[in-house]
Amino acid sequence: xxxxxxxxxxxxxxxxxxxxxxxxxxxxxxxxxxxxxxxxxxxxxxxxxxxxxxxxxxxxxxxxxxxxxxxxxxxxxxxxxxxxxxxxxxxxxxxxxxxxxxxxxxxxxxxxxxxxxxxxxxxxxxxxxxxxxxxxxxxxxxxxxxxxxxxxxxxxxxxxxxxxxxxxxxxxxxxxxxxxxxxxxxxxxxxxxxxxxxxxxxxxxxxxxxxxxxxxxxxxxxxxxxxxxxxxxxxxxxxxxxxxxxxxxxxxxxxxxxxxxxxxxxxxxxxxxxxxxxxxxxxxxxxxxxxxxxxxxxxxxxxxxxxxxxxxxxxxxxxxxxxxxxxxxxxxxxxxxxxxxxxxx
Length: 345
Description:
By secondary structure, the protein is of the alpha/beta class. 18% of the residues lie in helices and 30% in strands. The strands form 6 sheets. The chain has a 12-stranded mixed β-sheet with strand order 8-11-14-17-20-25-28-31-34-37-39-40. A 10-stranded parallel β-sheet has the order 9-12-15-18-21-26-29-32-35-38, with no helix packed on it. The longest helix is centred in the C-terminal third of the chain and has 35 residues, at 310-344.
Protein backbone atom coordinates (compact mmCIF):
# COMPACT_ATOMS: atom_id res chain seq x y z
CA UNK A 1 0.00 0.00 0.00
CA UNK A 2 1.21 3.49 -0.85
CA UNK A 3 0.36 6.73 0.95
CA UNK A 4 1.26 10.38 0.46
CA UNK A 5 2.63 12.62 3.17
CA UNK A 6 -0.63 14.57 3.20
CA UNK A 7 -2.73 11.41 3.66
CA UNK A 8 -0.54 10.34 6.56
CA UNK A 9 -0.64 13.82 8.11
CA UNK A 10 -4.44 13.89 7.85
CA UNK A 11 -4.68 10.52 9.61
CA UNK A 12 -2.30 11.60 12.38
CA UNK A 13 -3.66 15.16 12.60
CA UNK A 14 -0.18 16.45 11.82
CA UNK A 15 1.33 19.16 9.63
CA UNK A 16 3.43 18.59 6.51
CA UNK A 17 6.72 20.44 6.17
CA UNK A 18 7.94 19.85 2.63
CA UNK A 19 6.30 18.10 -0.31
CA UNK A 20 2.79 16.83 0.59
CA UNK A 21 2.73 14.52 -2.47
CA UNK A 22 5.77 12.51 -1.33
CA UNK A 23 4.83 8.82 -1.35
CA UNK A 24 5.94 5.93 0.86
CA UNK A 25 5.11 2.21 0.95
CA UNK A 26 7.19 0.90 3.86
CA UNK A 27 8.85 1.72 7.19
CA UNK A 28 12.54 2.04 8.10
CA UNK A 29 14.79 2.97 11.00
CA UNK A 30 16.10 6.51 10.74
CA UNK A 31 19.74 5.39 10.58
CA UNK A 32 18.93 2.92 7.78
CA UNK A 33 16.33 4.96 5.92
CA UNK A 34 15.68 4.15 2.27
CA UNK A 35 13.79 6.08 -0.41
CA UNK A 36 10.08 5.28 -0.37
CA UNK A 37 9.98 4.65 3.38
CA UNK A 38 8.75 6.56 6.42
CA UNK A 39 10.72 6.78 9.66
CA UNK A 40 10.54 8.81 12.88
CA UNK A 41 12.62 10.89 15.29
CA UNK A 42 11.54 10.87 18.92
CA UNK A 43 14.80 10.64 20.88
CA UNK A 44 17.08 13.71 20.55
CA UNK A 45 20.22 11.56 20.67
CA UNK A 46 19.31 10.26 17.19
CA UNK A 47 18.83 13.74 15.72
CA UNK A 48 22.06 13.64 13.71
CA UNK A 49 20.61 10.82 11.58
CA UNK A 50 17.79 13.04 10.28
CA UNK A 51 20.33 15.11 8.34
CA UNK A 52 21.70 11.96 6.66
CA UNK A 53 18.70 9.65 6.25
CA UNK A 54 17.47 8.69 2.78
CA UNK A 55 13.94 8.04 4.04
CA UNK A 56 11.29 9.99 2.16
CA UNK A 57 9.21 11.04 5.17
CA UNK A 58 10.16 11.55 8.84
CA UNK A 59 7.69 11.89 11.71
CA UNK A 60 8.94 14.48 14.23
CA UNK A 61 7.55 16.15 17.34
CA UNK A 62 5.97 19.57 16.87
CA UNK A 63 8.74 21.29 18.80
CA UNK A 64 11.49 19.93 16.53
CA UNK A 65 13.60 22.66 14.88
CA UNK A 66 16.29 21.51 12.43
CA UNK A 67 19.75 23.03 12.69
CA UNK A 68 20.70 22.10 9.13
CA UNK A 69 19.12 21.25 5.78
CA UNK A 70 16.84 18.20 5.72
CA UNK A 71 15.97 16.38 2.50
CA UNK A 72 12.99 14.27 3.61
CA UNK A 73 9.49 15.66 3.99
CA UNK A 74 8.61 16.14 7.66
CA UNK A 75 5.30 15.49 9.34
CA UNK A 76 5.04 17.31 12.66
CA UNK A 77 2.85 15.56 15.24
CA UNK A 78 2.17 15.78 18.95
CA UNK A 79 4.21 12.63 19.66
CA UNK A 80 6.30 10.99 16.94
CA UNK A 81 6.61 7.67 18.75
CA UNK A 82 2.90 7.17 19.39
CA UNK A 83 2.10 8.37 15.87
CA UNK A 84 4.40 5.73 14.44
CA UNK A 85 2.61 3.13 16.58
CA UNK A 86 -0.71 4.27 15.12
CA UNK A 87 0.62 3.82 11.58
CA UNK A 88 2.06 0.39 12.34
CA UNK A 89 -1.26 -0.71 13.82
CA UNK A 90 -3.10 0.60 10.77
CA UNK A 91 -0.91 -1.47 8.45
CA UNK A 92 -1.30 -4.54 10.68
CA UNK A 93 -5.09 -4.24 10.57
CA UNK A 94 -5.00 -4.00 6.77
CA UNK A 95 -3.36 -7.42 6.43
CA UNK A 96 -5.44 -10.30 5.13
CA UNK A 97 -7.34 -11.82 8.04
CA UNK A 98 -7.89 -15.56 8.49
CA UNK A 99 -11.39 -16.98 8.93
CA UNK A 100 -12.94 -20.40 9.35
CA UNK A 101 -12.33 -23.62 11.23
CA UNK A 102 -9.69 -26.03 9.94
CA UNK A 103 -11.06 -29.58 9.52
CA UNK A 104 -8.20 -31.00 11.62
CA UNK A 105 -9.13 -28.90 14.68
CA UNK A 106 -10.87 -30.71 17.56
CA UNK A 107 -13.74 -28.77 19.10
CA UNK A 108 -15.77 -30.43 21.84
CA UNK A 109 -19.50 -30.66 21.19
CA UNK A 110 -20.26 -28.59 24.28
CA UNK A 111 -17.85 -25.80 23.29
CA UNK A 112 -19.13 -22.53 21.83
CA UNK A 113 -17.33 -20.64 19.06
CA UNK A 114 -18.28 -17.04 18.28
CA UNK A 115 -18.78 -15.44 14.89
CA UNK A 116 -15.97 -14.58 12.45
CA UNK A 117 -13.38 -16.71 14.25
CA UNK A 118 -10.36 -18.57 12.91
CA UNK A 119 -9.47 -21.93 14.44
CA UNK A 120 -6.17 -23.27 13.07
CA UNK A 121 -4.79 -26.69 12.25
CA UNK A 122 -4.68 -29.27 15.07
CA UNK A 123 -6.12 -26.91 17.64
CA UNK A 124 -7.85 -28.51 20.64
CA UNK A 125 -10.81 -26.81 22.32
CA UNK A 126 -12.24 -28.55 25.37
CA UNK A 127 -15.67 -29.17 26.88
CA UNK A 128 -17.88 -26.18 27.75
CA UNK A 129 -15.23 -23.73 26.58
CA UNK A 130 -16.48 -20.42 25.16
CA UNK A 131 -14.59 -18.54 22.44
CA UNK A 132 -15.82 -15.00 21.73
CA UNK A 133 -16.43 -13.27 18.41
CA UNK A 134 -13.60 -12.38 16.05
CA UNK A 135 -10.94 -14.51 17.77
CA UNK A 136 -7.87 -15.92 16.01
CA UNK A 137 -6.74 -19.26 17.45
CA UNK A 138 -3.60 -20.32 15.61
CA UNK A 139 -2.47 -23.93 14.91
CA UNK A 140 -1.40 -26.41 17.61
CA UNK A 141 -3.06 -24.47 20.41
CA UNK A 142 -4.53 -26.29 23.42
CA UNK A 143 -7.49 -24.69 25.17
CA UNK A 144 -8.80 -26.84 28.02
CA UNK A 145 -12.25 -27.40 29.46
CA UNK A 146 -14.37 -24.55 30.86
CA UNK A 147 -12.13 -21.83 29.48
CA UNK A 148 -13.63 -18.46 28.53
CA UNK A 149 -11.97 -16.27 25.89
CA UNK A 150 -13.41 -12.84 25.08
CA UNK A 151 -13.95 -11.12 21.76
CA UNK A 152 -11.16 -10.23 19.29
CA UNK A 153 -8.46 -12.09 21.20
CA UNK A 154 -5.47 -13.58 19.36
CA UNK A 155 -3.88 -16.83 20.56
CA UNK A 156 -0.71 -17.71 18.65
CA UNK A 157 0.63 -21.24 17.92
CA UNK A 158 1.52 -23.71 20.67
CA UNK A 159 -0.16 -21.73 23.44
CA UNK A 160 -1.64 -23.78 26.30
CA UNK A 161 -4.58 -22.45 28.29
CA UNK A 162 -5.44 -24.82 31.15
CA UNK A 163 -8.96 -25.62 32.29
CA UNK A 164 -11.07 -22.97 33.96
CA UNK A 165 -8.94 -19.99 32.98
CA UNK A 166 -10.46 -16.73 31.74
CA UNK A 167 -9.06 -14.48 29.00
CA UNK A 168 -10.64 -11.09 28.30
CA UNK A 169 -11.38 -9.10 25.15
CA UNK A 170 -8.67 -7.83 22.80
CA UNK A 171 -5.91 -9.88 24.40
CA UNK A 172 -2.83 -11.24 22.62
CA UNK A 173 -1.09 -14.41 23.81
CA UNK A 174 2.12 -15.14 21.93
CA UNK A 175 3.55 -18.48 20.88
CA UNK A 176 4.45 -21.01 23.55
CA UNK A 177 2.88 -19.16 26.48
CA UNK A 178 1.31 -21.30 29.22
CA UNK A 179 -1.68 -19.95 31.11
CA UNK A 180 -2.81 -21.86 34.19
CA UNK A 181 -0.16 -24.49 34.88
CA UNK A 182 0.07 -25.60 38.51
CA UNK A 183 1.73 -23.21 40.91
CA UNK A 184 4.91 -24.35 42.67
CA UNK A 185 3.17 -25.58 45.81
CA UNK A 186 4.62 -28.38 47.97
CA UNK A 187 4.44 -29.23 51.67
CA UNK A 188 7.42 -30.84 53.47
CA UNK A 189 6.47 -34.17 55.08
CA UNK A 190 8.84 -36.81 56.46
CA UNK A 191 11.76 -35.56 54.39
CA UNK A 192 9.73 -35.36 51.20
CA UNK A 193 7.72 -32.68 49.45
CA UNK A 194 4.06 -33.49 48.96
CA UNK A 195 2.21 -31.72 46.18
CA UNK A 196 -0.48 -29.22 47.17
CA UNK A 197 -3.41 -29.27 44.74
CA UNK A 198 -3.76 -26.03 42.81
CA UNK A 199 -7.53 -25.56 42.51
CA UNK A 200 -7.77 -21.94 41.35
CA UNK A 201 -7.38 -20.40 37.90
CA UNK A 202 -5.83 -17.50 35.98
CA UNK A 203 -7.80 -14.44 34.90
CA UNK A 204 -6.48 -12.13 32.18
CA UNK A 205 -8.58 -8.99 31.95
CA UNK A 206 -9.13 -6.99 28.73
CA UNK A 207 -6.29 -5.66 26.54
CA UNK A 208 -3.60 -7.83 28.10
CA UNK A 209 -0.60 -8.99 26.04
CA UNK A 210 1.46 -12.02 27.05
CA UNK A 211 4.88 -12.60 25.46
CA UNK A 212 6.24 -15.79 23.94
CA UNK A 213 7.06 -18.62 26.38
CA UNK A 214 5.80 -16.65 29.36
CA UNK A 215 4.11 -18.73 32.08
CA UNK A 216 1.35 -17.69 34.46
CA UNK A 217 0.52 -20.22 37.19
CA UNK A 218 -2.98 -20.94 38.44
CA UNK A 219 -3.86 -20.02 42.01
CA UNK A 220 -3.99 -22.50 44.88
CA UNK A 221 -7.44 -21.08 45.60
CA UNK A 222 -9.09 -18.13 43.93
CA UNK A 223 -7.33 -16.56 40.94
CA UNK A 224 -3.98 -15.34 39.71
CA UNK A 225 -5.00 -11.92 38.37
CA UNK A 226 -3.51 -10.03 35.43
CA UNK A 227 -5.41 -6.74 35.34
CA UNK A 228 -6.53 -4.70 32.35
CA UNK A 229 -3.86 -3.36 30.01
CA UNK A 230 -0.92 -5.32 31.46
CA UNK A 231 1.90 -6.07 28.99
CA UNK A 232 4.28 -8.95 29.75
CA UNK A 233 7.39 -9.57 27.65
CA UNK A 234 8.77 -12.98 26.65
CA UNK A 235 10.09 -15.53 29.18
CA UNK A 236 8.40 -14.15 32.29
CA UNK A 237 7.31 -16.29 35.24
CA UNK A 238 4.23 -15.24 37.24
CA UNK A 239 3.63 -17.54 40.22
CA UNK A 240 0.38 -18.61 41.86
CA UNK A 241 -1.97 -16.08 43.47
CA UNK A 242 -0.01 -13.11 42.12
CA UNK A 243 -1.91 -9.96 41.18
CA UNK A 244 -0.53 -7.57 38.56
CA UNK A 245 -2.21 -4.13 38.54
CA UNK A 246 -3.62 -2.25 35.56
CA UNK A 247 -1.29 -1.06 32.79
CA UNK A 248 1.84 -2.47 34.41
CA UNK A 249 4.63 -3.55 32.03
CA UNK A 250 7.40 -6.09 32.61
CA UNK A 251 10.47 -6.77 30.46
CA UNK A 252 11.88 -10.20 29.68
CA UNK A 253 12.88 -12.72 32.38
CA UNK A 254 11.08 -11.05 35.26
CA UNK A 255 10.14 -13.53 37.97
CA UNK A 256 7.33 -12.87 40.46
CA UNK A 257 7.01 -15.25 43.42
CA UNK A 258 3.74 -16.44 44.88
CA UNK A 259 1.07 -14.18 46.41
CA UNK A 260 2.90 -10.96 45.56
CA UNK A 261 0.84 -7.95 44.50
CA UNK A 262 2.21 -5.49 41.97
CA UNK A 263 0.40 -2.16 41.66
CA UNK A 264 -0.91 -0.30 38.64
CA UNK A 265 1.27 1.55 36.10
CA UNK A 266 4.49 -0.08 37.30
CA UNK A 267 7.52 -0.66 35.08
CA UNK A 268 9.90 -3.58 35.74
CA UNK A 269 13.15 -3.95 33.80
CA UNK A 270 14.57 -7.23 32.54
CA UNK A 271 15.49 -10.00 35.01
CA UNK A 272 13.88 -8.32 38.01
CA UNK A 273 13.06 -10.80 40.77
CA UNK A 274 10.23 -10.21 43.24
CA UNK A 275 10.05 -12.24 46.45
CA UNK A 276 6.82 -13.79 47.64
CA UNK A 277 4.01 -12.26 49.75
CA UNK A 278 5.10 -8.63 49.20
CA UNK A 279 3.32 -5.53 47.88
CA UNK A 280 4.71 -3.22 45.20
CA UNK A 281 3.00 0.19 45.17
CA UNK A 282 1.49 1.91 42.15
CA UNK A 283 3.76 3.73 39.65
CA UNK A 284 6.90 1.95 40.86
CA UNK A 285 9.87 1.74 38.48
CA UNK A 286 12.40 -1.06 39.01
CA UNK A 287 15.77 -1.17 37.21
CA UNK A 288 16.98 -4.29 35.41
CA UNK A 289 18.33 -7.24 37.45
CA UNK A 290 17.01 -5.84 40.71
CA UNK A 291 15.95 -8.11 43.56
CA UNK A 292 13.07 -7.07 45.83
CA UNK A 293 12.37 -8.93 49.07
CA UNK A 294 10.17 -6.46 50.97
CA UNK A 295 7.27 -4.09 50.39
CA UNK A 296 7.79 -1.05 48.18
CA UNK A 297 5.79 2.18 48.54
CA UNK A 298 4.05 3.82 45.60
CA UNK A 299 5.97 6.05 43.14
CA UNK A 300 9.35 4.51 44.05
CA UNK A 301 12.31 4.32 41.65
CA UNK A 302 14.61 1.54 42.81
CA UNK A 303 17.46 -0.65 41.63
CA UNK A 304 19.95 -3.20 42.94
CA UNK A 305 19.90 -6.39 44.99
CA UNK A 306 18.42 -5.89 47.46
CA UNK A 307 16.81 -2.93 45.72
CA UNK A 308 17.42 0.56 47.08
CA UNK A 309 16.37 4.04 45.85
CA UNK A 310 17.76 4.65 42.37
CA UNK A 311 19.81 7.73 43.32
CA UNK A 312 21.48 5.84 46.15
CA UNK A 313 22.20 2.92 43.84
CA UNK A 314 23.85 5.17 41.23
CA UNK A 315 26.00 6.81 43.93
CA UNK A 316 26.92 3.40 45.32
CA UNK A 317 27.85 2.06 41.87
CA UNK A 318 30.56 4.72 41.64
CA UNK A 319 31.98 3.50 44.96
CA UNK A 320 31.84 -0.18 43.89
CA UNK A 321 34.34 0.52 41.15
CA UNK A 322 36.72 2.18 43.61
CA UNK A 323 36.47 -0.46 46.36
CA UNK A 324 39.89 -2.09 45.64
CA UNK A 325 41.55 1.31 45.83
CA UNK A 326 39.60 2.22 48.98
CA UNK A 327 40.52 -1.13 50.57
CA UNK A 328 44.21 -0.54 49.84
CA UNK A 329 44.03 2.95 51.36
CA UNK A 330 42.26 1.55 54.42
CA UNK A 331 45.04 -0.99 54.94
CA UNK A 332 47.67 1.73 54.77
CA UNK A 333 45.75 3.84 57.28
CA UNK A 334 45.44 0.82 59.57
CA UNK A 335 49.21 0.31 59.47
CA UNK A 336 49.80 4.00 60.18
CA UNK A 337 47.43 3.82 63.13
CA UNK A 338 49.23 0.80 64.56
CA UNK A 339 52.55 2.61 64.21
CA UNK A 340 51.16 5.61 66.09
CA UNK A 341 49.95 3.37 68.91
CA UNK A 342 53.39 1.76 69.20
CA UNK A 343 55.12 5.13 69.31
CA UNK A 344 52.80 6.34 72.11
CA UNK A 345 53.75 3.29 74.18
